[in-house]
Amino acid sequence: MQISYFSWVRERMGIAEEHVALPPDVAELSALIAWLAARDARGAHAFAEPERIRAAIDGTMIGPDARIADAREIALFPPVTGG
Fold first, then answer.
1. What is the pTM of this model?
2. How far apart are CA 7 and CA 39, in angstroms?
């Protein structure tokens, strides 16, 4: 699965995207964010406030309880504001 990072999430992770093989117990977005945070110091910093993270699966916005099993790409980013 491809994970893409945007804005300050990308800056904190130090990469724009990566391909990962998820453990079987990572089945929804909240579990993915927890797994990313637990992997290393960069992830811990990027996802220290998981409630601030927004996500999209294959271009469609999702919530924290969304299932991610069939996703090709998950995009993770901070809240977006417009004007």
1. 0.92
2. 20
User: Residue 70 has what pLDDT?
Assistant: 87
Rounded Cα distance, 69 and 47, in Å: 20
Question: Domain range spanning residue 26?
Answer: 2-77
Three-state DSSP state, 20 = coil
Task: Look at the chain and report how many structural domains it folds into.
Answer: 1
What's 23's domain CATH number?
A: 3.10.20.30
Widest CA span of the chain, in angstroms?
41
Inter-residue contact 30 to 64 (CB < 8 Å): yes
CA dihedral 17, 27, 47, 4 (to 10 degrees): 20
